[in-house]
Design brief:
By secondary structure, the protein is of the alpha+beta class. About 45% of the residues lie in helices and about 20% in strands. The protein has twelve helices and ten strands. The protein binds magnesium ion.
Length: about 300
């Protein structure tokens, strides 16, 4: 049950997806991806019945239900509500041509930080689905090494890579992990948005949007039209694609770094890493860690 005001907003929102109502009792009907919407003219105590049908029905209904409970124009908070509404994952927005970004290496003592933004058009969706693209944490390294070469032949992406010596330097200059990530995401997204200005932009949220933008206050150019989503890699194909490309680059990079030192660097920041770090320092000296590890990590204190 939705208010008249929500009904109007809803009709506006579905715009081109509105279809011919099948009965005179229907205010409007719409057909979106995975859901059909039927809004009825009849009202009971100011509320209209709206029917959602299809695989995405409950999801879509929840989004509107939430909007209906947000402030109205009278109390001047509508803009805020609409801004929030835009941040909601909606099936409709989900299937627009989209750019998504994600990062890797931030929890690993050894190795660089890599941020990737990927552009996924509607036409790329079947290929990516077929390859099984999903949150990179759900995929084995072997699977990622297998599918990403096929993905990057088709999908446009932008990648930034921060090697360890540079990372350690910017940390000494007063950056923290979040400000580094914010600057890298911003740059990647700007690069890709310039090539695909029509795409909607998603980011796997790692900081509150206000905090994210505060990290960027000294940047020359900042992309502001971003839909932030925590767990974005499991909600949006573009973020999932960015996450697998980033993971792939990280794995390949660690392989090369290993070859350079004739070893295999362990990932993560656990006990195995501590043990390996001690051996590495014995062999190559403490200073060499600056080139292969994030020296502000707690692992350093155990050396
Ligand atoms: Mg992430």
């Amino acid at each position: 049950m939705l208010t008249e005001e929500s009904l109007t907003r809803m009709a506006d929102f579905y715009g081109e997806q509105l279809v011919e109502p099948s009965s005179p009792y229907i205010a409007f009907a719409a057909k979106a991806d995975g859901v059909t919407i039927t809004a009825y003219k009849k009202e009971t105590k100011g509320l209209h019945k709206v029917l959602f049908q299809g695989p995405s029905a409950s999801y879509e209904a929840k989004v509107w239900d939430k909007l209906d409970k947000t402030p109205t124009r009278q109390d001047g908070l509508l803009e805020k509500a609409e801004e929030e509404f835009l941040r909601q994952p909606k099936t409709l927005l989900k299937w627009r041509d989209q750019i998504g970004s994600d990062e890797v290496g931030t929890g690993d003592f050894f190795g660089p930080i890599i941020v990737v933004a990927a552009y996924v058009s509607m036409g790329d969706t079947p290929l990516l689905k077929n390859l099984g693209v999903t949150d990179s944490k759900m995929l084995s390294d072997d699977k990622i090494l297998d599918i990403v070469p096929q993905i990057i032949k088709t999908v446009d992406y932008s990648q930034l890579y921060l090697p360890n010596d540079k990372y350690n330097q910017v940390i000494r200059q007063g950056n923290n992990m979040n400000s580094i990530k914010a600057k890298m995401h911003n740059r990647c997204l700007l690069n890709l948005k310039a090539r695909h200005p029509e795409a909607i932009v998603y980011q796997d949220q790692f900081a509150e949007p206000s905090l994210y933008f505060s990290y960027l206050k000294n940047e020359k150019e900042v992309l502001r039209e971003i839909h932030f989503e925590t767990k974005g890699e499991s909600k949006f194909l573009s973020v999932a694609t960015a996450s697998v490309i980033a993971r792939y680059s990280f794995l390949r990079h660690m392989e090369l770094l290993g070859e350079q030192y004739r070893t295999h660097f362990p990932l993560g920041a656990g006990n195995l890493v501590d043990e390996f770090a001690r051996e590495f320092v014995d062999e190559h000296g403490m200073d060499e860690l600056n080139n292969v590890a994030k020296t502000n990590f707690a692992n350093m204190r155990k050396l």
